[in-house]
Amino acid sequence: MSDLQELHQRIASCPDCDLCRTRTNAVPGEGPPDAEILFVGEGPGFYEDQQSRPFVGPAGKFLEELLASIGLRRDQVFITNVVKCRPPNNRDPLPGEIEACRKYLERQIELIRPKVIVSLGRYSLAWFSPGDKISKAHGQVQVKDGIYFIPMYHPAAALHAGNMRKVIEEDFKKIPAVIDRAREAPPEQAAPEPEPEQIRLF
Predict the structure, then answer these.
(1) From residue 202, how far is each of 135, 140, 147, 148, 175 by CA, in Å?
(2) What is the mean pLDDT of residues 112-135?
(3) pLDDT in tens, 14-62
(4) Residue 189, SS3?
(5) How far apart are CA 18 and CA 195, in angstroms?
(6) What is the pLDDT of residue 81?
């Protein structure tokens, strides 16, 4: 059993917050253990809780469309969430729940060692960049702990507000250039100047 599989077994039986009492299944995440891109959402919803898989509901279908639009398949990326169990009635995750799960996401990043991390939604952004506002940070490429980091709106935002769809699609178009850049040189070796596609590093 790999370290990642062992971690996911621990998540599946985790008792560290009250979400363990209301979940049907924990949702550790899925994807290649050496994925170049890690997508981090906020928390599982109804369908995810039922299937123990991330992003399998309507937002997940849109995410798969977004991946296809940049030439990627779901099985080529790793997808997880800040909290691994569904908050009741899909409410926002509480600070204590996020902290209880922090060790799991930290370990996933350590084991997968992605070249690029894409946060999906404001709670995911806050996990990586406390204080940043998604309305200003979305689509802006940063470097966090030696990894390229791109905050984006959650795909579900497009389901609730049609005008968000175009914004999310445009942000997604930046991913291939960031992957190429990450393959060429780690962030600490990369020049800080903005690229023509308006990648901004800081």
Answers:
(1) 18, 10, 12, 10, 17
(2) 96
(3) 999 999 999 999 999 999 999 999 999 999 999 999 999 999 999 999 9
(4) helix
(5) 45
(6) 98
Give the pair of three-digit tokens for residue 108: 């996933």
Per the listing, tokens 């802006």 go with 140
| 27 half-sphere exposure, CB direction, 13 A CA radius | 30
Domain spans in the chain, listed from the N-terminal domain onward: 3-184
Structure tokens at 189: 């070796």
Cα(141)–Cα(148) distance, rounded to whole angstroms?
Answer: 7
Tell me what pLDDT residue 129 has: 94
CB atoms within 10 A of CB 124: 26
Type of residue at 128: F
| CATH class, 3-184 region | alpha beta
Burial of 63-92, coded b for 16+ CB within 10 Å and e otherwise, reads: bbebbeeeebebeebbbbbbbbbbbeeeee
CA distances for 19 relative to 14, 54, 73, 144, 171, angstroms: 9, 16, 31, 29, 32
DSSP 8-class letter at 30: B
The dihedral through the CA atoms of 94, 146, 141, 79 has a sign that is: negative
Q: What is the mean pLDDT of residues 60-77?
A: 98
**Least confident segment among 76-85, 89-98, 156-165, 169-178:** 156-165
